[in-house]
Known about the structure:
Helix content: 10-25%
Number of strands: 6
Largest sheet: 4 strands, antiparallel
Distance between the termini: 44 Å
Number of helices: 4
Amino acid sequence: MVFSYEVFLNKGLTDFRTVLSQQVESAEVLDTYKVKYTFKPGFPTRDLPETVGGLPILSKKHYTENNRDLEVSSLEPFLGSGPYLLDDMKVGERLVYRRNPDYWGKDRRSSAEQRISTRSGSNISPITTPLSKASRPAPIRSATKPLR
């Protein structure tokens, strides 16, 4: 986790780096299962545990062995352990995810597709294809068109 924190602190999005560097003093490994974050004084700490606790965890081995770099654009997904894996992608149009068979959770969709529009003024909304009994997500409301 500390490796991931340091990668995002040094190479993450500028806004994210700014928040981390201004509000977090340090991160240290306490043991195999514990990490301690020290927050800088003078900042509200209500959301900081969620911010640092919600950081994606990168595999240090995969990151270094594959010469990954957050500052370099790439279409190769990072190694992850979440409920879905990237299955197919058409840049600027769609992403298709498939269920990660090694994920611990149950009752998830077998796959999901998200269509992306880069046209100005278009509504971007997820198009999901449930192949299990999982419920559909709530529709995303558009600022320009009311739901009917």
